[in-house]
Amino acid sequence: xxxxxxxxxxxxxxxxxxxxxxxxxxxxxxxxxxxxxxxxxxxxxxxxxxxxxxxxxxxxxxxxxxxxxxxxxxxxxxxxxxxxxxxxxxxxxxxxxxxxxxxxxxxxxxxxxxxxxxxxxxxxxxxxxxxxxxxxxxxxxxxxxxxxxxxxxxxxxxxxxxxxxxxxxxxxxxxxxxxxxxxxxxxxxxxxxxxxxxxxxxxxxxxxxxxxxxxxxxxxxxxxxxxxxxxxxxxxxxxxxxxxxxxxxxxxxxxxxxxxxxxxxxxxxxxxxxxxxxxxxxxxxxxxxxxxxxxxxxxxxxx
Length: 303
Fold this sequence. Notes:
two-stranded parallel ribbon
């Protein structure tokens, strides 16, 4: 049994990680402010990660899974506060790669500003650098779009809502834009493998080996809801994120290094089906945006 500290534990990725490792039999501590229900089988360290005082000083963890760090200060403050640990793993983001760089992005590709992700990507770069400066043996994972049970972002849930209401779906242009996804449970499995195997490589792009068109992704979401899909293409200059849950930005990560340690990943069809079942049971856990309102006010005349 390992003793693991997970930052967060009450939202999407951190919550699923806490469940995964506790169900594996590990002794899981979650670090959060205690304002929400905690994952079963975990022990709460109730604190703000920016105001830790001595809560972690006398504790040793076999692994620290830092899932909620967004800045260099986040990393430095946690490292200053923790008593000791074996392995440190940071969930970063594919947003660290510049949108102008050559694709597919490799782990060795330069990092830098991305006009779509802005400060978020720049802050993740600084968080990575702060960690590597203090612990060169730490692991950094750079995922694309994460999905699966627990996803509180209004992505697949938006499409599910459209399907359940039997709405036509307003799709950007011809729907050929491709996106790369990664199931949250695959992310947990990979974290587990890295903690156990401790490979020499310390930065990993993670994701499905194949990208999927947004048309196919929407189709899978409607299929999961048991509804037929009617598509209305949007070719005008409307800002895509007003009516669709992703930026007008196509990119692809090279995940060959991940493949060595995690050869198989969840199929997108099965993963979306599981996401739909989770959403049916937790409709209020998703942060919804007024996408349908924008469509009804600005795009319905296109039909």
